RNA sequence: GGCGGCAUAGCCAAGUGGUAAGGCACGGGUCUGCAAAACCCUUAUCCCCCGGUUCGAAUCCGGGUGCCGCCUCCA
């Protein structure tokens, strides 16, 4: 078996073949930093983080590049509204992005390039396109000549004629053709700008990704990913720019994730039906959000609601409880000479199935169902009166291996209990021994009010926070 | 108008030719001093509807209905 992934370009699942043996060059479109990200914006970082982790798990070295669009109309607008400069706004929300995404368990990208740090590369890119006859200047703007690029529409599977009928030229635009798009925008008074051969201005939206992908990953990359809504026009335009310039394939595989929906409708900033990650994680364990997102295949839409999140939370807690129980039992385990080999085989099978599912276009939904089956298997084992240290460790290791690819940390950090509570637990133990159950229950209720849940097991009392 | 996606139990969700994974919720039981947790059992003769292909279809083909998305900034 090997990794297969669904390629938007060909509309089918394909065997992954890297450009360079053992390496993956991956570019994921990052946010325009004019606001906190919402839950929908969080889906690409999460699902493609898993894609990256899985490639690494399978022995690939992944060069994962994700950009920040830190100059743009919306940033300028936000800056004006808030009375701050555009760079201040951008820096603020870049920091917020890192914070949010870290809470969601997303690994740092290999590289996080910013548009404003790559202006020269962009200018060079645009100049080269003009030289090659793929772009033209018009009063300080530069536009890409869509009809010069033969494959235009091949990624989003739109015919140029159809697109043309839907496109329109806004009043005052200087495009020769409605489908042409801006590579460089002349600065209006008061806007941030950089000097260029066409006068002061700033990059258009699409050119930055082409220029930065090329700079950090080369002319041809393995995987280019982003939200479904970026396929057109953003990614289509990237293909046009990059391939027009280099004459080479820009990206071998295009991955697009489905949307997060609210009441069956796309969550988006323009519809106003969004929930910010920043706000949500104040009341909700971010890991639950991650787990919930991974419980659906990345290409399918996810309907988002508190109820669904709650049910995901219950499920995740069950897995975690079992994982903790395994650790708890380790302290009371013996070196039993049981049939280790058959257990090794059983657990190796879980891993094998996990790999099979993930190889099939990163089916995290099925990967999670395997984690649930493993949980059941472990619970069954834990019911036996005696447990072998070696087998417990095998279980733990299997859990950890699968969870780490999904980016889940099953081990809860437990702050130590304060002395008073420990005292109460001890007192309750004594009460139970002397069959003073009234007092024992009283203490259990008391602790429950402090959000400490007690569980009596054959191996002694165990506590957890609610 | 063009292109595309989806429709599976009360809810969520895998499954793209071989006879319905997994989770949440519900009910019954085991364990427990009682709980909690866990485990066991039960829950879709059937996968939106109609027709076709096939020994065999939720899965393929044709038609229909409903919902959603892209074609414009958007993850």
From TrEMBL:
<dbReference type="InterPro" id="IPR032678">
    <property type="entry name" value="tRNA-synt_1_cat_dom"/>
</dbReference>
<dbReference type="InterPro" id="IPR009080">
    <property type="entry name" value="tRNAsynth_Ia_anticodon-bd"/>
</dbReference>
<feature type="binding site">
    <location>
        <position position="238"/>
    </location>
    <ligand>
        <name>Zn(2+)</name>
    </ligand>
</feature>
<dbReference type="InterPro" id="IPR056411">
    <property type="entry name" value="CysS_C"/>
</dbReference>
<feature type="coiled-coil region">
    <location>
        <begin position="414"/>
        <end position="441"/>
    </location>
</feature>
<comment type="similarity">
    <text>Belongs to the class-I aminoacyl-tRNA synthetase family.</text>
</comment>
<feature type="short sequence motif" description="'KMSKS' region">
    <location>
        <begin position="266"/>
        <end position="270"/>
    </location>
</feature>
<dbReference type="Pfam" id="PF09190">
    <property type="entry name" value="DALR_2"/>
</dbReference>
<comment type="subunit">
    <text>Monomer.</text>
</comment>
<feature type="short sequence motif" description="'HIGH' region">
    <location>
        <begin position="31"/>
        <end position="41"/>
    </location>
</feature>
<feature type="binding site">
    <location>
        <position position="29"/>
    </location>
    <ligand>
        <name>Zn(2+)</name>
    </ligand>
</feature>
<feature type="binding site">
    <location>
        <position position="234"/>
    </location>
    <ligand>
        <name>Zn(2+)</name>
    </ligand>
</feature>
<dbReference type="InterPro" id="IPR015273">
    <property type="entry name" value="Cys-tRNA-synt_Ia_DALR"/>
</dbReference>
<keyword id="KW-0479">Metal-binding</keyword>
<keyword id="KW-0547">Nucleotide-binding</keyword>
<keyword id="KW-0030">Aminoacyl-tRNA synthetase</keyword>
<dbReference type="GO" id="GO:0005524">
    <property type="term" value="F:ATP binding"/>
</dbReference>
<dbReference type="InterPro" id="IPR015803">
    <property type="entry name" value="Cys-tRNA-ligase"/>
</dbReference>
<dbReference type="Pfam" id="PF01406">
    <property type="entry name" value="tRNA-synt_1e"/>
</dbReference>
<keyword id="KW-0436">Ligase</keyword>
<keyword id="KW-0963">Cytoplasm</keyword>
<dbReference type="GO" id="GO:0008270">
    <property type="term" value="F:zinc ion binding"/>
</dbReference>
<dbReference type="InterPro" id="IPR024909">
    <property type="entry name" value="Cys-tRNA/MSH_ligase"/>
</dbReference>
<keyword id="KW-0067">ATP-binding</keyword>
<feature type="binding site">
    <location>
        <position position="269"/>
    </location>
    <ligand>
        <name>ATP</name>
    </ligand>
</feature>
<feature type="binding site">
    <location>
        <position position="209"/>
    </location>
    <ligand>
        <name>Zn(2+)</name>
    </ligand>
</feature>
<dbReference type="GO" id="GO:0005829">
    <property type="term" value="C:cytosol"/>
</dbReference>
<keyword id="KW-0648">Protein biosynthesis</keyword>
<feature type="domain" description="Cysteinyl-tRNA synthetase class Ia DALR">
    <location>
        <begin position="353"/>
        <end position="417"/>
    </location>
</feature>
<keyword id="KW-0862">Zinc</keyword>
<dbReference type="GO" id="GO:0006423">
    <property type="term" value="P:cysteinyl-tRNA aminoacylation"/>
</dbReference>
<dbReference type="InterPro" id="IPR014729">
    <property type="entry name" value="Rossmann-like_a/b/a_fold"/>
</dbReference>
<protein>
    <recommendedName>
        <fullName>Cysteine--tRNA ligase</fullName>
        <ecNumber>6.1.1.16</ecNumber>
    </recommendedName>
</protein>
<keyword id="KW-0175">Coiled coil</keyword>
<dbReference type="Pfam" id="PF23493">
    <property type="entry name" value="CysS_C"/>
</dbReference>
<dbReference type="GO" id="GO:0004817">
    <property type="term" value="F:cysteine-tRNA ligase activity"/>
</dbReference>
């Amino acid at each position: 078996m090997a990794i297969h992934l669904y390629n938007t370009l060909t509309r089918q699942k394909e065997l992954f073949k890297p450009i360079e043996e053992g390496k993956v060059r991956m570019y994921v479109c990052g946010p325009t930093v004019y606001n906190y990200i919402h839950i929908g914006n969080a889906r690409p970082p999460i699902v493609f983080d898993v894609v990256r982790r899985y490639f690494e798990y399978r022995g690939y070295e992944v060069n994962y590049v994700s950009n920040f669009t830190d100059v743009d109309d919306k940033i300028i607008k936000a800056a004006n509204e808030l009375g701050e400069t555009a760079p201040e706004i951008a820096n603020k929300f870049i920091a917020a992005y890192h914070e949010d995404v870290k809470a969601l368990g997303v690994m740092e990208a290999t590289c996080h390039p910013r548009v404003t740090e790559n202006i020269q590369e962009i200018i060079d890119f645009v100049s080269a396109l003009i030289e090659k006859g793929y772009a033209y200047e018009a009063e300080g703007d530069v536009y890409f000549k869509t009809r010069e690029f033969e494959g235009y529409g091949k990624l989003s599977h739109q015919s140029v004629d159809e697109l043309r009928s839907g496109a329109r030229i806004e009043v005052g635009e200087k495009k020769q053709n409605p489908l042409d798009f801006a590579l460089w925008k002349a600065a209006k008074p008061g806007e941030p700008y950089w000097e260029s051969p066409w006068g002061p201005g700033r990059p258009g939206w699409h050119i930055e990704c082409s220029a930065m992908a090329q700079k950090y990953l080369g002319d041809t990359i393995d995987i280019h990913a982003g939200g479904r809504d970026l396929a057109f026009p953003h990614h289509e335009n990237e293909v046009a720019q990059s391939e027009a310039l280099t004459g080479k394939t820009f990206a071998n595989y295009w991955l697009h994730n489905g949307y997060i929906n609210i009441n069956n409708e796309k969550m988006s900033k323009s519809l106003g039906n969004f929930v910010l990650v920043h706000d949500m994680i104040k009341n909700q364990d971010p890991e639950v959000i991650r787990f919930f997102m991974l419980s659906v295949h990345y290409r399918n839409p996810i309907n988002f609601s508190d109820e669904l999140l709650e049910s995901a939370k219950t499920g995740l807690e069950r897995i975690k409880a079992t994982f903790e129980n395994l650790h708890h039992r380790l302290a009371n385990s013996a070196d039993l000479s049981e049939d280790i080999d058959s257990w090794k085989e059983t657990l190796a099978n879980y891993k094998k199935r996990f790999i099979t599912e993930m190889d099939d276009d990163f089916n995290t939904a099925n990967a999670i169902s395997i984690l649930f089956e493993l949980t059941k298997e472990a619970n069954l084992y834990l019911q036996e009166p005696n447990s072998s240290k070696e087998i417990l460790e095998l279980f733990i290791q299997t859990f950890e291996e699968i969870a780490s690819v999904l980016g889940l940390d099953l081990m809860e950090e437990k702050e130590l209990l304060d002395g008073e509570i420990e005292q109460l637990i001890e007192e309750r133990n004594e009460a139970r021994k002397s069959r003073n159950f009234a007092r024992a229950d009283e203490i259990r209720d008391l602790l429950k009010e402090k959000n400490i849940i007690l569980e009596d097991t054959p191996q002694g009392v165990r506590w957890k926070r609610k």
